[in-house]
Amino acid sequence: QFFSSSASPAPPSVKILLDDPVVVNPGETITLVCKVMGGHPFPTLRWLRLEDEELPRRAIVKDGTLTVPVISDDDGGTYNCVASNNVGNPAKKFITILVRGLRKGRFWITPDPYHNEDNIQIGREVKISCQVEATPSDELQFSWLKNGRPLKSSERMVITHTDPNISPGTTNLDIIDLKFTDFGTYTCVASLRNGGIPEISIDVNISSTTGEVLPGIMTW
Question: Which residue spans traverse the membrane (predicted)?
């Protein structure tokens, strides 16, 4: 009834018909619906992107509905639905789009044989650390391989992970009291629990000459 011609002027109110945040895979289409819940005269709706960023060029806006086809990583961020009718302040609702992804994978070894000119030695403790940025961060998971075979945490091979909500996430492999049989290729594999994104793997070669050869490869 607040839309009738006899209604008193009332400021706008709106809601977005999706929970925040929205998680989407690259290449998918996302539709955000903003609905007027009150206000007289009937409010006008518009969509903006936070921090003065323009809406994606492919975006389609119609009657409060924002559609972004073939979404990419660059389209992620916070979007803002604004309702205004010149009565009171405009009503604003925010929603964040998270585009699933893994990026910026890197590794380091402690002690650092690449900068300290100190070869990996038998009997020492060696730590391999692997760090990856993930969206969303709470879906990040790590696993380790040795020479292509799954590696589980043990007394001498200690695997630890940082809190997945800390971005970027890090996993560590501590090799206690390095033995000759520990030489080989160690692979850190990062993936997202809900899938849809290719995993990242980083190979690190540990041998008596580590520090004199190039590090392993990264695959996306």
Answer: none
